[in-house]
Amino acid sequence: MDRVAAFERALFTWAKWIDTNINRAKTLLFFQGISPSHYNGTNWNEAGVKTCLGQRQRISGSTYPGGLPPAVTVLKKVLYMKAVTLLDVTNLCLLRKDGHPSIYGLTGMDCSIPGVPDIWNQILYNFIVTR
Question: What positions does the domain Trichome birefringence-like C-terminal occupy (predicted)?
């Protein structure tokens, strides 16, 4: 099965579980968006670059030249139908070539730049205190 199709199926299953098991009058629901990976320099107009290792400059402009990961469209489609707050960190992190804290990428890279998880926490905190 295609991984994006599997992701969509999993999200719909999760959404059904939410509908059945969560009291929406008493519970705030948040879903963190997709943390991107940066494997291919052609996606940010630097052909030949294969990882984010050593990348410190942000991508110029306000959109990622490589486009959004396909899973973002699936995520927004499923969450649009539910009263779930999306912590949309994808664009925020796409514009930093080293903007992902995960070691679970293609080659186990862990850019772990200071700031990315901290910003995610600030976004979540803001949503919580303003509700």
Answer: 1-126
What are φ and ψ of residue 108, in 5° steps?
A: 75, 20
Q: How many domains does the chain have?
A: 1
102 versus 130: which is more confidently predicted? 130
Alpha helices in 2-115 (DSSP H): 3-21, 70-80, 90-94
Give residue 7's pLDDT: 94
Cα–Cα distances (Å) from 115 to 65, 87, 122, in that order, read: 23, 16, 10
What 8-state DSSP symbol labels residue 33? Answer: -
Give mean pLDDT, residues 93-97.
77
C-beta neighbour count of 86 within 10 angstroms = 19
Which residue range(s) make up the domain with 90?
3-129
pLDDT digits (tens, 9 = 90+) for 60-75: 777 777 788 889 999 9
